[in-house]
Amino acid sequence: MLDSLNRYSSSSNNVVDFMVTTIPGLEDIVFEEAREKINVLDVIPRFGDVGGRVLLRVPRNQCDKVFTLRSIEHIIELVGTFKVGSDKNGLDQIYSGVYSFDIPLGSTFRVTCERVGSHKYTSIDVQRIAGQALVDKYGRRVNLKNPETIVRVDVAYDLCIVGLQKTRTSLRIRYPRMFQHYSALNPIIAYAMLRIAGVRSGDRVLDPFCGGGTIIIEAAQAWSGLELIGVDISPKSIEGAWMNAEAAGVRDKVNFIVGDARRLERVLSRGWRADKVVSNLPFGIRSGRLKVIPPMYTDFLKSVRQFLNEDSKVCLLTLHNSLLKSIAEDLGYKVIGSRWILQGGLKTWIMLLSP
Ligand SMILES: C[S@@+](CC[C@H](N)C(=O)[O-])C[C@H]1O[C@@H](n2cnc3c(N)ncnc32)[C@H](O)[C@@H]1O
Fold this sequence. Notes:
Elements: E1 15-21, H1 27-37, E2 42-45, E3 53-59, H2 63-66, E4 74-83, H3 89-100, E5 108-112, E6 115-116, H4 123-138, E7 141-142, E8 149-156, E9 159-165, H5 187-197, E10 204-207, H6 214-222, E11 227-232, H7 235-248, E12 254-258, E13 274-280, H8 293-305, E14 308-318, H9 321-330, E15 334-343, E16 346-354
Parallel strand pairs: 5-7, 5-8, 6-8, 10-11, 10-13, 11-12, 13-14
Antiparallel strand pairs: 1-3, 1-4, 2-3, 4-9, 8-9, 14-16, 15-16
Helix pairs in contact: 3-4, 5-6, 8-9
The structure holds S-adenosylmethionine.
């Protein structure tokens, strides 16, 4: 672990520190993926004590690889950090702290701030004062709409984190969604669930509530040699899933079928087996029909069982974790993992079952 957060100056000639953002609760997935793809020299999960942020120290010659990670949204190259107070004096500290760093600005810039914790100033105040420090020091112009450089000045409790934002749009946007499902999953969560399920080349992967196809398309893009089937009861969703697969360039690697996840025997061949079932279950909130959820979860888990091997894994995203756990256990499944994540402030659960 990097030992000191207090005003450690980051990138040297040979190493670069990146603060990357993800879904709170998936920090370990970022760490695992980064370690697999990059020679990560050090890591701080929950950087600045904030969920959804991870600090990765990487060799300079491997910086490009950070952009290939599928578990992250934004990449910020760290310039440095310093302690900051929570009262109005904090703004003076931000001015002098930002002023003291060497920041390679383009001809125009913008400051963006994300603030976590309780302070007597707002993120707008931080943007204004940090922007002023940069104008005073470098004499560059502010351009809010299309700046050459985006400077991040985040305040996390008593820590000010200064960096250069390297991503303009979130890396979760993998392809243009030709069909926008009303409850489309963030592909970062889809990727994390596939990893949690332990997907590997050669697996047969089933998403029985596939909607617009996010999980199946993510699997097709991130792994090779998978057999992929998505099922959804809505013909409109299945048509949309095909359109999305086309846009993602994986149409020939996937299969989408209209069908009922409670009666999978009607759509899947009798001897077929799924190594991994990965799915974002209906939450029953949008439809306002929470009472349909218990029988739906029960009938789905009963039906899917005949398509599982002894070693199969079932990874499900739900809002109703205790309900799912009790139904699964009653039906003889083992709950082998469970964690919560925050999706736009909503606590949802990823549960891993084995038959
Ligand atoms: C939470 S959404 C899935 C969204 C999907 N992960 C995506 O990113 O587009 C749940 C889906 O379950 C489907 N569904 C509801 N009841 C079903 C059933 N009995 N069998 C199959 N699909 C069903 C809905 O049509 C909806 O598309």
